[in-house]
Write a structure and sequence with these properties.
Pfam families: Phage_integrase (PF00589). The chain has 233 residues and is mainly alpha-helical. It has one domain (9-227): Intergrase catalytic core (hpI Integrase, Chain A, Orthogonal Bundle), CATH 1.10.443. It is built from nine helices and three strands; from the N terminus they run αααβββαααααα.
Length: 233
């Protein structure tokens, strides 16, 4: 499972929520689209996995770019995820004059599979795979920030998606899908590293169906309580 008009979440488009629980996402189609590029399939596969990871953990651009292989580790409460049960974000957004904030993240069920496939089967074929960076570029040890933006825009346009979508839309979609799936708002706030709940609320772009279901539940609960036997008149 959004634009620069962040003060008004209703104006911020999000990605189709149907892919939130599966490793088969729009990035799979992006990979097929980018594979036509003469550069070959390795960078395209990297891009697809990078975008899935950014969504799967709700990461900012620089947090995604600065990931290293060693940032993933086992989760004692989720041994089924193997060596990718948790992710340590070492380059979180910092306050002015302060070091980057760190936070440890849990996973979607499909994220360990995506990461393990990239690390063990595909990344070793990259020219600069000897470095620590999870996402080496074609020309250096680590992909650049502007490269993330340009590749996202290229795939978006090739697929005919909303031109308002940007890299940060993946993060807003992650927040929105957690909220729509019923996760506690405080948990979501801590997952994405927001200091204030209001910031998380601004990035939440729930659908009209979700708003309708929420209202329906509230109305049903009110009517049920009013009709309960023994209620004082």
């Amino acid at each position: 499972m959004p634009t620069k008009a962040r003060a008004n979440p209703s104006n911020a488009p999000s990605l189709d929520p149907s892919w939130r629980r599966s490793s088969t996402t729009p990035t799979s189609r992006w990979c097929a689209s980018g594979a036509r590029d003469a550069r070959g399939w390795l960078p395209t596969f990297r891009d697809a996995t990078l975008f899935k990871t950014a969504y799967g953990y709700g990461l900012r651009r620089n947090e995604t770019r600065m990931l290293n292989e060693v940032d993933f580790g086992p989760n004692p409460h989720g041994r089924e995820f193997g060596d990718c049960g948790t992710l340590m974000v070492r380059h979180g957004k910092a306050k002015k004059g302060s070091p980057p904030k760190r936070r440890r993240l849990t996973v979607w069920q499909w994220t360990p599979v995506v990461i393990e496939e990239w690390v063990t089967e595909v990344r070793p074929g990259m020219r600069h795979a000897h470095g620590p960076a999870l996402w080496p570029s074609e020309r250096g040890l680590r992909v650049g920030l502007q490269r993330l933006d340009s590749r996202f825009a290229a795939y978006r346009d090739a697929l005919g998606l909303d031109p308002a979508l940007e890299f940060h839309s993946l993060r807003r979609s992650y927040i929105t899908h957690l909220i729509e799936d019923g996760y506690d708002p405080l948990f979501v706030q801590q997952q994405v590293g927001h200091e204030y709940a209001s910031t998380t609320a601004i990035c939440t772009c729930v659908s009209s169906d979700f708003r309708t279901r929420t209202l329906r539940r509230a109305l049903d609960a009110t009517v049920e309580a009013a009709m309960r036997p023994g209620r004082a008149s």
